[in-house]
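Thread title: Can someone regenerate the structure for this chain?

I was given the following input by a collaborator and told the matching structure tokens would be attached. They weren't. Posting the sequence so someone can regenerate them.
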Amino acid sequence: MGFLKFILILDLIGLVLAGLYALSMMGKRRPKNGFGRLGDYDYAHRGLHALPAGIPENSLRAFRLAANNGYGAELDVHLSRDGRLVIMHDENLKRTTGVNANISAVTTQVLSQLALEGTREKVPYLEEVLPLFNGKAPLLIEIKTDNNNYVELTRKVVNLLKQYPELDYMVESFDPRVLRWLKKHHPGIVRGQLAQNFIKDPAPGMNKIEAFLLTNLCFNFLTMPNFIAYRLEDKDALAPGLCKKLWGVQTFYWVVRDQETANQLAEEDSMIIFEGFAAK
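Best answer:
Regenerated them for you:
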């Protein structure tokens, strides 16, 4: 009898944990008309870039090509030392400019002297990119936090976006605090939680608990994202599928590199962030 009670207790604990896990992945259900105009586009990863043609990632030329060819674009925003909204994927400038320094440690004066990936393209700022898409295609803006600057960075991005009333956009981040801040202060902004299998591939400095919580989207009950943007290689992970099935949350996958995969995801009602081909 004692053994049966032990099994029963384990079952009850399992049910409670399963319920809490399901609750943790809550998000905002898509409206009945789908995802609106934002769902009509594929999003070019860091712009429509092609380095062999002299078009580096996250460059004004790459964004201009995306907008002019009818694509939305995904981009990454950092905060410089002097408070500028810098478009760059990495927090460090080494890979794309050759200068070994973090964006948060340099000023506009330094950035203005740098070129992207051996081209004549300069490091762009968010205020230079927004006019390219205003009244045209939408933007998917990733907030890249550093040194707990999420409030200042997110507030500055939102304040700049307010100056472009004809611009369609979404905001996403790996940092749940960004989404929490948006939910509290600007709940009307479409927000998304970026994630991947951090248990398999942890980010630098990430501990095992953080890896588990972020992989499994355990902060969703606090942030209530409108969409989940999950790494394509981790598509079979439990969390994004449950978010979609249980709560009807829109899914994105990144990075899609062929039309066959894009078509498959479209059939599953998922949106894509693509690069390396002309998505149709």
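The two ends are 63 Å apart (CA to CA).
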